[in-house]
């Protein structure tokens, strides 16, 4: 049954197994019944049942319960000792007729078992009346002659990042990962992603810290507000608020954020910081990190003539649609265009000429910022649509 089911994408199995619990006298069961302990993938479990309901009368409540192993000192030691243990599992709980197992009732779930939630399952697994009543003349009742089989199929899955199916209640990101995140103001997801990328660019962060801001007002100074965000990311135990930073841009409303994308926001931020850095020890730091050079050219095919110009860039916008890899996106960006026919190039001193038009990257910066063009205008829908092609 569930032991042979296919795992959801991106989940790796630690191990799987099953356990059958046969009840010989349903009517003699206590209010709370527990099966024998069984082991799956090195973890101990049992089946927990309330035959007359748990907070719900006239229904059978059925759960699977994780049993933390005890260390020598007597403390819970399920997955690392103390109350820090957890185990992630997909499971199926089933009740079936002992003699005719094709008569059954089944429910499936997934859960992150922790010290706070050691059991998980179904408070309303089934109406008791339905279990005791035959479906028709040819089908026996699920509970027949007071006997029934309860089965658990458990598949324990790996949790390499430690947050699979986590509800994040009382979660200490600083303690578990060494880092904290940024609070989302509602329309600032793109800003948060950029700020975290810049924060982890150590040379950029150090340059920001060296901007003189002693006399600045954080409500009006982008540099000071950014310094405070970066500092909080280093020392705070809670997610960091960015309201002060956004107000320093003069963006007070939701509409202000919706009118910008991450590329525009980044350029405004970098321009502001470059201005603030002028004449200081970090003058030119932004360009040193992010500035590259590219040459745009038009080269005639039949005569010796070329028009070109070299420009600085801080980021590159790459097409994603139809490109399988980042290399494909760069090839698309540098693809040479042929100017001929009605689209010939007017070359000074040579008139209309067939020509090749393209770009050449003359240098890349230490930190290359790429903007993947995930949205395009759809004329039929009269709206921007997302491109889901993946590299």
Automatic annotation (TrEMBL):
Which keywords does UniProt give here?
Hydrolase, Protease
PROSITE patterns linked: MATH, USP_1, USP_3
A cellular component term from Gene Ontology for this protein is: nucleus
User: GO molecular function terms here?
Assistant: cysteine-type deubiquitinase activity
Identify the residues that the record assigns to the USP domain, covering every copy: 180-391
GO BP terms in the entry: protein deubiquitination; proteolysis; regulation of protein stability
Q: Where does the MATH domain start and stop, copy by copy? A: 16-154
Q: Does the keyword Protein transport apply?
A: no
The enzyme's E.C. designation: 3.4.19.12
Protein name in the entry: Ubiquitin-specific protease ubp15
Q: Which organism is it from?
A: Coemansia pectinata
Kindly list the organism's lineage: Eukaryota, Fungi, Fungi incertae sedis, Zoopagomycota, Kickxellomycotina
Quick one: which gene encodes this?
UBP15_3
